[in-house]
């Protein structure tokens, strides 16, 4: 598979994944097409050697694995982890705002959003709705308006002459998107608008009333190749759906001989402490049911986790924000992320295996260390390492505009990471 075809498939995945629920739905379709079998956590599992399985929790987190042809206790498990969520604006439970004939909705900031780029963008809305049908049964449904329905207008510079010097964003008052104009006395509820959309997308579901929702605004502009030579790809949610796609494809496309696993957790952007987050019990529960409790502990000592989450590529306009010896360049390879204060879980052993595999394939790699006078972000890597006790590597492709409404990465890096991850999942010994 050439990197151009790989990236076209990546852009399609990003287009169809405006929320974690949609991303997991896309991943389950990919797994179904590859012959993986779905598992239900409520059932007894009967796992067979040499097969592929997956399990979904909350509709927004997923664990998929190949049992391999060898005993995972003796061979260890080759694990890759990523996260399905991205910083965004989420609709509040009672969101209706009516001002001067404009219908707006209140939003809550989810995660560490870079807020200024959200102004003056065409916004759409998607997510999960919980509703009751005509038979009195509760259903969860995914909706996606798939068109621009909202807008957050900037205040004109004529009304704020200091806008280019000192404008700040108040998340409560400045961010409610405008959805439409309404006449005087209008009492349209947001739930009524959702019900109309449900009937449009799910006409046979028989939905009578909306009970709740988890909805996110997103950039309606589709993902695209950019640059004179199309060496970049631009999209919302590259952090971290790019890593989800790369990790899942590596699992699907490897030869299946060795025990291998891919986990995609929700809620990384807000700390990972949830039933389906990396700090929760989801992955441990799956491993216990696969290996058995005591055998899981034995398997972990022979296993390794690659935590894949995008890295900060050096910005040509802000080069001083990087350590001078650790400024990753876009399209010059994935970035091994190192922090001795354990914001990243990389150690010399896990980094060495990645470098070995990458070098054997003739592929480039880079290293990132944050400036010593700046704080460092984190990933699911240290959390998963702490929960499982597994040797872990933190890595990611370099990108610009992290946590913006539209981010940018290189077209070569994602395919390079895929090739090394695929080799990792086929490696006879990982620890």
Describe the structure in your own words.
The chain is an alpha/beta fold. The protein folds into two domains: about 5-85 and about 235-425, Zn peptidases (Aminopeptidase); about 90-220, Aminopeptidase i, Domain 2. It is about 25% helix and about 25% strand. The chain has helices at about 5-15, 20-35, 70-75, 165, 190-200, 240-255, 280-290, 295-300, 350-360, 380-390, 415-425, and strands at about 35-40, 50-55, 60-65, 80-85, 90-100, 100-110, 125-135, 140-145, 180, 205-220, 225, 230-235, 260-265, 305-310, 310, 335, 365-370, 390-395, 400, 405-410. The strands form three sheets. The chain has a nine-stranded mixed β-sheet with strand order 1-2-3-13-4-14-18-16-17, sandwiched between helices. A six-stranded antiparallel β-sheet has the order 8-7-10-5-6-9. β16 (about 335), α9 and β17 (about 365-370) form a beta-alpha-beta unit. α7 packs across α8 (about 295-300). The chain is globular, with a radius of gyration of 22 Å. Its cofactor is Zn(2+). Its EC number is 3.4.11.-. One of its GO terms (biological process) is proteolysis.
Q: How large is the share of residues in beta strands?
A: 25-35%
Alpha-beta content class:
alpha/beta
CATH class of the largest domain: Alpha Beta
Largest sheet: 9 strands, mixed
Q: Unreliable segments (pLDDT under 50, ≥5 consecutive)?
A: none
Can you tell me the CATH topology of the largest domain? Aminopeptidase
Residue share in helix: 25-40%
Name the shape in a single word. Answer: globular
How many beta strands in the DSSP annotation?
A: 20
Instruction: Describe the strand arrangement of the main beta sheet, using strand numbers.
Output: 1-2-3-13-4-14-18-16-17
How many structural units, i.e. domains? Answer: 2
Mean pLDDT: 95
Rg calculated over all Cα atoms: 22 Å
The CATH superfamily of the largest domain is known as Zn peptidases
Count, helices: 11
Distance between the termini: 29 Å
Specify the CATH architecture of the largest domain: 3-Layer(aba) Sandwich
Enzyme class: hydrolase
InterPro entries: Peptidase_M18, Peptidase_M18_dom2
GO cellular component, one term: cytoplasm
Protein name: M18 family aminopeptidase
